[in-house]
Amino acid sequence: MQHQYLFILSPPYSGSTALWQLLKTSSQVSALPDEGQKLPELRKMMRENPWDPSTIFDWNLISTIWHQYWDPKKPVLLEKSPPHLCRVEAILEHFQPAEFILLMRDPLAICEALHRRNGMPWEAAAERWTYWLELHLKAREEQSCSHLLYYEDMVADPSSTFRALAEWLPSLQDVDYKSAIEAHAVDGVQKRPLLDMNPRKIAQIKPADRMRVLKTLEKSLPLIEETPYAAQYF
Q: Which DSSP state fits 92?
């Protein structure tokens, strides 16, 4: 069987876990039991400096381990680990044919998660989101056949979102996008249908902290203008 490799490329806290859980409801999709970088055989290697593009990984070992977990009877082999965003070239070298879903999310929502879950200062969180945006835009420019997806569109209109995904990759036609998913949120780990968590997350940010984030983001406005978020915040 000719397999199709499907990678979700996104920053952390962008809704990739929700998307991953929904995609694997398809009868055509085999997903790893966790993020590929967190599998026990690979965690020590892949979680050491994962966001440094110069970190060297043994991709032959990675491929061997991942294939031990994927179901070879399924045509689409799905993986999502956020640091893949800085290793697209390595993925393309070792997994063919490969397709990418490029997922992005509101900067304030991601900064809230970085601050709440990692204790990251607001300015540092905004700078981190900007770095991830740079990687996202680079992948978007270089991988012309990839599928661009914003978290906000996915939660606002899942029917249209997953119909468009199926038009792009027909093997995804039977995804059950109404299925309950389990993911971290501001109120802890919950299992529920796809739901827009942005308003609740952003409401947690104090006005002064919101201004700190936006002031930092404004330094990279030309990049942000490549997304819907510039018109929303600037």
A: H
